[in-house]
Amino acid sequence: MIKWTSITNEEEKQFLKTIIAYNEKSEKQYRMLSTFFYNKEWMDEVLHKYNMQSAFNQYCFMGGYEYAERQVLVFGYDQSYMEMPICALKVTVKTGIGKTLTHRDFLGALLGLGLKRETIGDILLKPFGAYVIVMKEMAEFICCHLTGIGRYQKITVEEISFLDMEVDPPRFKECLTTVPSLRVDAIFAAAFGLSRSEVVRYLQGDKGKVNGMFVTASHPMKVGDVGTLRGYGKMRLGAVNGTTKKDRLHITIEKYI
């Protein structure tokens, strides 16, 4: 049983209330219900933090492809039921010779239509434009009203099958190093080429996260944890490989490229 008064983070509290209600409603009404998009690592961390993994009978994460960063949490999902709560859009932009479009350009155009951020999943940049994962209920609206990306007005938007998406797996650059401990400040310093004092300053300014959550410098990381530092990138703790004679830890850091 969750003690609601002990939860100080309002986003976590609202998320937990939502998924508990959706799970109960899905079981009573025998229908599928899903949340909006959240960071997948953040959802995993919240479920683990409040011991909720075993509280639900039938649920799954869904982001459109295996490595999706933003996903929805679906309750009562039945594989025989073909109507999924999310879909993929292929946005083709004829830019000619000009500045390459960015993730911000596509997101800005979508938000400019009045869409809320939580209705939009991953945006995957491609030579032709981008794949955009969205809530199914928003697809028709976007196809009809998205007429430009940035200054480019020659675009087409079509709904496609997830199977038709060409998505490459994430690429990493592996780095073997040693750290004095598994604290966030030590690992981020090694991963991003910073001093620990610089990392502490960034963390105090809410510029660093582990598994989608803001953390303090002393927060311990474990194998598989994903860290991000604004302006420096994203990394994953791949392995802890033993200790040195001076009791430093041999670790493998995987930096996303």
UniProtKB/TrEMBL annotation:
<keyword id="KW-0694">RNA-binding</keyword>
<dbReference type="Pfam" id="PF17774">
    <property type="entry name" value="YlmH_RBD"/>
</dbReference>
<dbReference type="InterPro" id="IPR012677">
    <property type="entry name" value="Nucleotide-bd_a/b_plait_sf"/>
</dbReference>
<protein>
    <recommendedName>
        <fullName>Ribosome-associated protein quality control protein P2 RNA-binding domain-containing protein</fullName>
    </recommendedName>
</protein>
<dbReference type="InterPro" id="IPR040591">
    <property type="entry name" value="RqcP2_RBD"/>
</dbReference>
<dbReference type="GO" id="GO:0003723">
    <property type="term" value="F:RNA binding"/>
</dbReference>
<feature type="domain" description="Ribosome-associated protein quality control protein P2 RNA-binding">
    <location>
        <begin position="100"/>
        <end position="162"/>
    </location>
</feature>
